[in-house]
Amino acid sequence: MKWSTLNATLARRRHEEITEAGKFVPVGLTVDYAMLRERLVEAIPRFDGEIGAGAYDVATGLALYRILGEVGMDVRTAADDGVWRFLSLRVVPDIVQARWPKLPADRFWRGRSRIWLRAVWWLIHLAWQENEEQTRAVLTDVTTDTIVQLVERPGRGGFRIELARAMFRERSSRRLSQEEFRALMKLNTARVIVTEPWFCDGGIRGYVRELHDYVVSVR
Fold it and tell me: Alpha helices, DSSP H only, in the chain?
């Protein structure tokens, strides 16, 4: 699929149009994007508050990750904010609006880490285990704060995929609270600057266990 993008200036204008109209009417989509919209609308339930926001974000992320992957989304494309602006403002802004009814600009286009569709896609990518079922299992108690702690802490060299996935596996088995997970992410952010996880005793797995041991020890 050929991915369309939206720069910040056009994104701001489009967001203002949606905010003024109060609703979204899809127009001018290519055949590929019209089909993509149809698949996403069918797969992603509207947020009605019956389930928690974190659980809804996970469900949305899993559907988004699967469907976008099937049409060619890769990590390089997912790193392009313009792609997420286009999806958020041209393709499925009604889905974003259902989750964020006050239409905050940062959830649609402003501030890369907080663009909602981008955040939930990266949540799934960073937490991915061997399949969707196992990934859902390690994300059963995820909250919006969990997503913030993960997606807004990419590190100097960007996201470390294998490290993030190992941390989610360990987090799930240890049943960390939100406060403990926040402390874990802060500790990792500081530690990884001076420590290469691959060189630790036990490699990444050993490094992750050491972090968790420390956090659990100070409960």
Answer: 8-21, 31-43, 53-70, 75-78, 81-86, 93-99, 105-108, 116-127, 132-138, 144-151, 161-174, 178-191, 203-217
Specify the length of the chain in residues.
219
Per-residue pLDDT of the chain (219 residues; tens, 9 = 90+): 999 999 999 999 999 999 999 888 888 899 999 999 999 999 998 888 788 898 999 999 999 999 999 999 999 999 999 999 999 999 999 999 999 999 999 999 997 788 999 999 999 999 999 999 999 998 988 877 777 767 766 555 567 889 889 988 888 888 888 788 888 888 888 888 888 888 888 899 999 999 899 888 876
Asked if 215 contacts 187 with a C-beta cutoff of 8 angstroms, the reply is: yes
Q: Where are the domains of the chain?
A: 1-142, 153-219
Number of neighbours of residue 83 by Cβ within 10 angstroms = 19
Distance separating alpha carbons of residues 131 and 134, to the nearest angstrom: 6
* Closest to 210 (Cα-Cα) out of 162, 201, 156: 201
Give the global pTM: 0.89
Instruction: List Cβ neighbours of 34 (8 Å cut-off, separation of 6 or more).
Output: 26
